[in-house]
Amino acid sequence: SKGLDYFSDQEEREHPLVWMFLDEAHEFLPLHGKTAATDALIQLLREGRQPGISLVLATQQPGQIHRDVMTQSDIVISHRVTSQPDLEALNYIMQSYLFESIKKYMDDLPSLKGSAIILDDNSERIYPMRIRPRFTWHGGEAPTTIKAEKRL
Description:
This protein is an alpha+beta fold. Helices cover 21% and strands 18% of the residues.
């Protein structure tokens, strides 16, 4: 049975939207070469919105990721990067409406932890932002064999 979305006149989708999250995306979508996942992920990047599939990709090395990732992205959130290949990769996606280089926007960011920029392809604008500090425990720390002593 098809219904209407409460807030719009659009019909509800028969199938829910699917979101796929991929960390270290440059390992699956390298700038040079291919992995077993590259072709399928590139196809999702190019055609995924039509069947209702959205990708959220994370990398610390935008200069090492496949160019289609950069050109097919609607929104890019980037913390401060300083390496030339990473700056060039970010410049590559926003070249049509950037008035200044990405490096200038990065240099204008405050040096506070969590500072970033949002590159929005839909509005063709760049926004500064700051992500709040994490309030939860971080489970990604390396294990240690030496137990920390508690001080009284």
